[in-house]
Amino acid sequence: MLNGFAIAFGIGLLIGVERERHKDNPIARSAAGVRTFTVVCLMGAVAWSLGGRALLALAVLVVAAGALAAYQKNAKRSPGLTTEFSLVLTCLLGGFAMEDGALSAGLGVVLACVLASRSRLHHFIGHVLTPQDWRDMLAFFAITLILVPLAPDKAMGPFDAIHPRALTLLVATVMAVSAAGYIGMRWLGPKHGLPWAGLASGFVSSAATIHAMGRRARQDNTLAAPAVAGAVLSSIATIIQMSVVIALVQPSLLQAMAWPLVVGGAVATLYGLFFYLKSASSSWSVEPQNPGRAFDLTGAIGFATLLAVVIVGSAALNAWSGDAGVLVGAALSGFADAHATAASAASLLAAGKINSDRAVVLTLLGLTTNAITKAVLAFNAGGLSFGLKIVPGLVLMVSGAWLAFWFLV
């Protein structure tokens, strides 16, 4: 209980300090400051501890009445309702802190950040966000919040290889990756924004990142160098994620895979840094001719369609592979996801069905075939020039991993 009161006090103090700073603005001066918000948050905590939800509801009504009275008094000077609604929410957070302190504290921090970002949010919406950006954002949320939940969550189609929800989620993922590149470019400029966005987006999907970067390079050839850097750097995330997956499923396999992962990751890092430094040191204008769109729906659908074809083809070959199913299955599953192959190999090793060397071979097969998928996506999305820059990095990464296995393991 004492912990809940401490969290409520901290929430009220945090939001109150932000509102106290807001009171320094004579145009938008409000009655509630650090003391009011701290008292209101503690009121919610005390109400919850003494009478549960019923007494908390009464406390909220009292706070709402006081906020309404303050609003009517200051309506001419400050017509906004932000402080008044924040006061009511702070009371609720104080009561919620007695039940779930961590979540209540997190929500309090979010509220404080939103309140502190008033001018930046207004500037972003009024001067940075374009009408096209807003329409694309609506399309993204429609897919994410409507289509993904409604898509069938089961395998269907030829060889039961098509999973509608997974493919719909993949479309949303590619759009999000494309948006990350767009935001990074608008924020840091294309020289630095695209490479860093590519590295970060690689943890979501390296294949999707390569496709999105290729589309951006094709839209504006002046962005080719930073887009290539972002696409190549995304492969580093593949190695890191694979290491994490293996460590979680079967740590002993991570020891056997240590040299292949280190060498493959080092090669990918060096190749990516080469293009990053080349992009950063180039003399072309930092303003792209065509910044593109935040959410590339057409490109996302094309990516999902191409990957669906690969998955169906892999499932067909797997169904016809007979007794060679383990090796063939590992290679074919890698076309869609290298991490799934690594997890499968680690699981088989943990169950004692294969030895360590066999598990390493299966994992590297998945990494190899996944690189083939990335190469196809690079040529498909970015054209010949883009693909020819991506493929050597993929070849070097995979070759380094295999050579490390053959000579160092």
What does this 3D model show about the protein?
There is one protein chain. By secondary structure, the chain is mainly α. The protein has 2 domains: 2-124, no CATH class; 130-408, no CATH class. It is 81% helix and 0% strand. It has 16 helices and no strands. It has helices at 2-22, 34-74, 82-97, 101-116, 118-128, 131-150, 164-188, 190-201, 206-219, 224-249, 251-256, 258-280, 297-319, 325-336, 338-350, 356-408. The longest helix is centred in the C-terminal third of the chain and has 53 residues, at 356-408. The protein is elongated, with a radius of gyration of 27 Å. Residues 284-291 have low confidence and may be disordered.
Keywords:
2 domains, 81% helix, elongated, mainly alpha, 409 residues
Summarize, please.
This protein has helices spanning 2-22, 34-74, 82-97, 101-116, 118-128, 131-150, 164-188, 190-201, 206-219, 224-249, 251-256, 258-280, 297-319, 325-336, 338-350, 356-408.
Write the layout of secondary structure elements.
Blueprint (H helix, E strand, L loop, with lengths): L1 H21 L11 H41 L7 H16 L3 H16 L1 H11 L2 H20 L13 H25 L1 H12 L4 H14 L4 H26 L1 H6 L1 H23 L16 H23 L5 H12 L1 H13 L5 H53 L1
Distance between the termini: 55 Å
Mean of residue pLDDT? 78
H/E element sequence: HHHHHHHHHHHHHHHH
Q: How many whole angstroms does the radius of gyration measure?
A: 27 Å
Domains counted in the coordinates: how many? 2
Quaternary assembly: single chain
* Biggest beta sheet attributes: none
State the share of residues found in helices, binned by percent: over 70%
Low-confidence stretches: 284-291
The tally of beta strands, per DSSP, is 0
User: Helix segment count?
Assistant: 16
What is the approximate shape? elongated
Give the amount of beta strand, in percent: under 5%
**Helix/strand/pairing category:** mainly alpha
